[in-house]
Design brief:
This protein is α+β, with helices and mostly antiparallel strands. It contains eight helices and eleven strands.
Protein backbone atom coordinates (compact mmCIF):
# COMPACT_ATOMS: atom_id res chain seq x y z
CA UNK A 1 0.00 0.00 0.00
CA UNK A 2 2.82 2.40 0.88
CA UNK A 3 4.52 1.61 -2.43
CA UNK A 4 1.34 2.32 -4.40
CA UNK A 5 0.86 5.56 -2.48
CA UNK A 6 4.44 6.59 -3.23
CA UNK A 7 3.97 5.80 -6.93
CA UNK A 8 0.77 7.84 -6.94
CA UNK A 9 2.53 10.85 -5.40
CA UNK A 10 5.36 10.49 -7.93
CA UNK A 11 2.90 10.52 -10.84
CA UNK A 12 1.15 13.60 -9.44
CA UNK A 13 4.50 15.36 -8.97
CA UNK A 14 5.63 14.62 -12.53
CA UNK A 15 2.27 15.67 -13.99
CA UNK A 16 2.16 18.96 -12.07
CA UNK A 17 5.78 19.69 -12.97
CA UNK A 18 5.14 19.13 -16.67
CA UNK A 19 1.96 21.21 -16.58
CA UNK A 20 3.08 24.15 -14.45
CA UNK A 21 6.84 23.75 -13.77
CA UNK A 22 6.50 24.52 -10.05
CA UNK A 23 3.35 22.54 -9.23
CA UNK A 24 5.32 19.39 -8.46
CA UNK A 25 7.45 21.24 -5.92
CA UNK A 26 4.30 22.66 -4.35
CA UNK A 27 2.80 19.16 -4.09
CA UNK A 28 5.91 17.84 -2.32
CA UNK A 29 5.79 20.76 0.10
CA UNK A 30 2.11 20.06 0.78
CA UNK A 31 2.90 16.41 1.50
CA UNK A 32 5.50 17.50 4.03
CA UNK A 33 3.20 20.03 5.71
CA UNK A 34 0.22 17.68 5.72
CA UNK A 35 2.27 14.94 7.38
CA UNK A 36 3.85 17.23 9.95
CA UNK A 37 0.70 19.10 11.00
CA UNK A 38 -1.92 16.40 10.27
CA UNK A 39 -3.70 18.51 7.63
CA UNK A 40 -5.90 17.48 4.70
CA UNK A 41 -3.97 17.65 1.42
CA UNK A 42 -7.08 18.45 -0.62
CA UNK A 43 -7.59 21.64 1.40
CA UNK A 44 -3.96 22.55 1.86
CA UNK A 45 -2.84 22.20 -1.74
CA UNK A 46 -5.11 24.92 -3.26
CA UNK A 47 -4.12 27.38 -0.53
CA UNK A 48 -0.38 26.78 -0.87
CA UNK A 49 -0.66 26.78 -4.66
CA UNK A 50 -2.33 30.21 -4.67
CA UNK A 51 0.25 31.61 -2.27
CA UNK A 52 2.99 30.52 -4.66
CA UNK A 53 1.08 31.72 -7.73
CA UNK A 54 0.10 35.15 -6.44
CA UNK A 55 2.78 36.07 -3.91
CA UNK A 56 5.97 34.02 -4.09
CA UNK A 57 6.75 33.09 -7.70
CA UNK A 58 6.32 36.53 -9.41
CA UNK A 59 9.05 38.32 -7.40
CA UNK A 60 11.39 35.30 -7.42
CA UNK A 61 11.00 34.93 -11.20
CA UNK A 62 12.53 38.39 -11.66
CA UNK A 63 15.82 37.04 -10.33
CA UNK A 64 15.69 34.50 -13.16
CA UNK A 65 15.08 37.21 -15.76
CA UNK A 66 11.35 36.54 -16.19
CA UNK A 67 8.38 38.80 -15.53
CA UNK A 68 4.71 38.01 -15.25
CA UNK A 69 2.39 39.42 -17.90
CA UNK A 70 -0.67 41.42 -16.80
CA UNK A 71 -3.67 39.40 -15.75
CA UNK A 72 -6.40 42.00 -15.30
CA UNK A 73 -5.39 44.64 -17.88
CA UNK A 74 -8.12 45.08 -20.51
CA UNK A 75 -5.66 45.93 -23.31
CA UNK A 76 -3.18 43.10 -22.67
CA UNK A 77 -4.76 40.08 -21.05
CA UNK A 78 -4.82 36.27 -21.06
CA UNK A 79 -7.43 34.32 -23.01
CA UNK A 80 -8.66 33.27 -19.59
CA UNK A 81 -7.22 32.96 -16.10
CA UNK A 82 -6.06 29.39 -16.63
CA UNK A 83 -2.83 30.57 -18.30
CA UNK A 84 -1.67 32.67 -15.32
CA UNK A 85 -2.94 30.02 -12.90
CA UNK A 86 -0.70 27.44 -14.59
CA UNK A 87 2.34 29.77 -14.44
CA UNK A 88 2.37 30.03 -18.26
CA UNK A 89 2.40 33.83 -18.54
CA UNK A 90 6.07 34.67 -17.95
CA UNK A 91 8.41 36.37 -20.41
CA UNK A 92 11.72 38.24 -20.42
CA UNK A 93 11.44 41.99 -19.72
CA UNK A 94 12.06 42.89 -23.37
CA UNK A 95 9.05 40.84 -24.49
CA UNK A 96 6.85 42.35 -21.80
CA UNK A 97 7.87 45.86 -22.87
CA UNK A 98 7.13 45.08 -26.53
CA UNK A 99 3.67 43.73 -25.70
CA UNK A 100 2.81 46.59 -23.34
CA UNK A 101 3.89 49.24 -25.84
CA UNK A 102 2.00 47.49 -28.63
CA UNK A 103 -1.13 47.29 -26.48
CA UNK A 104 -0.84 50.97 -25.61
CA UNK A 105 -0.66 51.96 -29.28
CA UNK A 106 -3.37 49.58 -30.47
CA UNK A 107 -5.95 50.54 -27.86
CA UNK A 108 -6.60 53.78 -29.75
CA UNK A 109 -7.81 51.61 -32.64
CA UNK A 110 -9.93 49.53 -30.25
CA UNK A 111 -7.61 46.54 -30.62
CA UNK A 112 -6.66 44.54 -27.55
CA UNK A 113 -3.93 41.91 -27.29
CA UNK A 114 -4.95 38.51 -25.94
CA UNK A 115 -2.15 36.13 -25.05
CA UNK A 116 -2.19 32.35 -24.79
CA UNK A 117 0.85 30.27 -23.77
CA UNK A 118 4.00 32.27 -23.02
CA UNK A 119 6.71 30.68 -20.85
CA UNK A 120 7.30 29.28 -17.37
CA UNK A 121 8.89 31.50 -14.70
CA UNK A 122 12.24 29.70 -14.30
CA UNK A 123 15.11 28.05 -16.16
CA UNK A 124 15.95 28.33 -19.86
CA UNK A 125 15.41 25.07 -21.69
CA UNK A 126 12.61 23.78 -19.48
CA UNK A 127 9.92 22.68 -21.98
CA UNK A 128 6.45 24.19 -21.91
CA UNK A 129 4.45 21.29 -23.27
CA UNK A 130 3.09 20.74 -25.86
CA UNK A 131 5.19 23.43 -27.54
CA UNK A 132 8.51 22.79 -29.24
CA UNK A 133 9.91 26.11 -28.05
CA UNK A 134 8.58 28.53 -25.39
CA UNK A 135 11.50 27.61 -23.14
CA UNK A 136 13.55 30.81 -22.87
CA UNK A 137 11.06 33.58 -22.08
CA UNK A 138 11.31 34.99 -25.60
CA UNK A 139 8.26 33.34 -27.21
CA UNK A 140 4.55 33.87 -26.88
CA UNK A 141 1.33 32.86 -28.62
CA UNK A 142 -1.26 35.53 -29.31
CA UNK A 143 -4.85 35.33 -30.49
CA UNK A 144 -6.11 36.62 -33.80
CA UNK A 145 -8.68 39.40 -33.95
CA UNK A 146 -12.34 38.57 -34.65
CA UNK A 147 -15.65 40.18 -35.56
CA UNK A 148 -19.07 39.11 -34.33
CA UNK A 149 -22.15 38.21 -36.36
CA UNK A 150 -22.82 41.94 -36.88
CA UNK A 151 -19.30 42.37 -38.30
CA UNK A 152 -18.25 44.43 -35.29
CA UNK A 153 -14.77 43.95 -33.76
CA UNK A 154 -14.82 42.00 -30.51
CA UNK A 155 -12.28 40.80 -27.97
CA UNK A 156 -14.08 37.46 -27.73
CA UNK A 157 -12.45 34.34 -29.19
CA UNK A 158 -14.00 31.29 -30.91
CA UNK A 159 -12.62 28.64 -28.52
CA UNK A 160 -12.16 28.35 -24.79
CA UNK A 161 -8.44 27.66 -25.03
CA UNK A 162 -7.78 30.16 -27.82
CA UNK A 163 -6.38 27.35 -29.98
CA UNK A 164 -7.86 24.98 -32.54
CA UNK A 165 -10.34 27.09 -34.55
CA UNK A 166 -8.66 27.67 -37.89
CA UNK A 167 -9.10 30.85 -39.94
CA UNK A 168 -9.87 30.49 -43.66
CA UNK A 169 -8.87 26.84 -43.42
CA UNK A 170 -10.15 26.03 -46.91
CA UNK A 171 -7.25 28.10 -48.28
CA UNK A 172 -4.61 26.32 -46.20
CA UNK A 173 -2.92 24.06 -48.75
CA UNK A 174 0.17 23.89 -46.52
CA UNK A 175 -1.78 21.99 -43.89
CA UNK A 176 -2.91 19.36 -46.40
CA UNK A 177 0.62 19.04 -47.74
CA UNK A 178 2.17 18.56 -44.30
CA UNK A 179 -0.37 15.94 -43.26
CA UNK A 180 -0.06 14.06 -46.55
CA UNK A 181 3.71 13.94 -46.00
CA UNK A 182 3.32 12.14 -42.70
CA UNK A 183 3.29 15.01 -40.21
CA UNK A 184 0.21 13.72 -38.44
CA UNK A 185 0.52 16.19 -35.56
CA UNK A 186 0.19 19.24 -37.81
CA UNK A 187 -3.48 19.93 -37.08
CA UNK A 188 -3.83 18.17 -33.71
CA UNK A 189 -4.56 21.52 -32.04
CA UNK A 190 -8.14 21.11 -33.29
CA UNK A 191 -8.51 18.74 -30.34
CA UNK A 192 -7.34 21.39 -27.87
CA UNK A 193 -10.14 23.91 -28.15
CA UNK A 194 -11.73 22.73 -24.86
CA UNK A 195 -14.98 23.76 -26.49
CA UNK A 196 -15.97 26.24 -29.19
CA UNK A 197 -18.06 29.28 -28.31
CA UNK A 198 -19.34 32.47 -29.90
CA UNK A 199 -20.35 33.06 -33.51
CA UNK A 200 -17.22 34.81 -34.72
CA UNK A 201 -15.34 35.41 -37.94
CA UNK A 202 -11.67 36.12 -38.56
CA UNK A 203 -10.95 39.87 -38.61
CA UNK A 204 -8.32 40.26 -41.32
CA UNK A 205 -8.07 44.05 -41.00
CA UNK A 206 -7.32 44.23 -37.28
CA UNK A 207 -5.20 41.06 -37.29
CA UNK A 208 -3.02 42.72 -39.92
CA UNK A 209 -2.75 45.88 -37.82
CA UNK A 210 -1.79 43.78 -34.79
CA UNK A 211 0.96 41.95 -36.69
CA UNK A 212 2.34 45.16 -38.17
CA UNK A 213 2.48 46.74 -34.73
CA UNK A 214 4.28 43.76 -33.18
CA UNK A 215 6.90 43.64 -35.93
CA UNK A 216 7.79 47.31 -35.96
CA UNK A 217 10.00 46.86 -32.89
CA UNK A 218 13.70 46.03 -33.50
CA UNK A 219 13.61 43.31 -30.83
CA UNK A 220 10.97 41.34 -32.77
CA UNK A 221 12.88 38.51 -34.48
CA UNK A 222 10.22 36.44 -36.22
CA UNK A 223 6.51 35.74 -36.30
CA UNK A 224 4.81 32.53 -37.40
CA UNK A 225 1.48 32.32 -39.21
CA UNK A 226 0.38 30.06 -42.05
CA UNK A 227 1.72 31.08 -45.51
CA UNK A 228 -1.79 31.55 -46.90
CA UNK A 229 -2.57 34.10 -44.19
CA UNK A 230 0.64 36.00 -44.85
CA UNK A 231 -0.43 36.40 -48.47
CA UNK A 232 -4.14 37.09 -47.89
CA UNK A 233 -3.33 39.73 -45.28
CA UNK A 234 -1.01 41.50 -47.71
CA UNK A 235 2.08 40.90 -45.59
CA UNK A 236 4.17 39.08 -48.19
CA UNK A 237 6.83 41.79 -48.09
CA UNK A 238 7.57 41.31 -44.37
CA UNK A 239 10.62 39.05 -44.01
CA UNK A 240 10.12 38.54 -40.28
CA UNK A 241 6.96 36.55 -40.98
CA UNK A 242 8.10 32.95 -41.46
CA UNK A 243 6.73 29.48 -42.10
CA UNK A 244 7.24 27.40 -38.96
CA UNK A 245 7.68 24.09 -40.78
CA UNK A 246 5.67 20.88 -40.90
CA UNK A 247 7.33 19.56 -37.74
CA UNK A 248 5.32 22.07 -35.69
CA UNK A 249 1.53 22.58 -35.65
CA UNK A 250 -0.47 24.79 -37.95
CA UNK A 251 -0.62 28.51 -37.21
CA UNK A 252 -3.92 29.64 -38.66
CA UNK A 253 -5.49 29.69 -35.20
CA UNK A 254 -2.91 31.88 -33.45
CA UNK A 255 0.20 34.03 -33.84
CA UNK A 256 3.58 32.90 -32.55
CA UNK A 257 5.93 35.80 -31.78
CA UNK A 258 9.53 35.62 -30.66
CA UNK A 259 12.15 38.23 -29.95
CA UNK A 260 15.94 38.25 -30.28
Amino acid sequence: MKLLRAIGHLIITIFLTALTQVGGLIWLLVLLLASKFKLKKRYLFPMVYLVFNLLLVPPVAKYFGREQLPVFDKDLKPRHYLYPLLFRNYVVPEMKTLLEQSAEHLKYQSIGITYLDANFPFLDGFPLLPHLSHSDGKKIDLSFQYVNSKHQPTDKKPSLSGYGVFALSEQNFTSNSCIENGYWQYDYSKYLTFGTINDLNFDSKNTKLLIQELLKYPSAQKLFIEPHLKQSLGLGHMDKIRFHGCQAVRHDDHIHLQIR
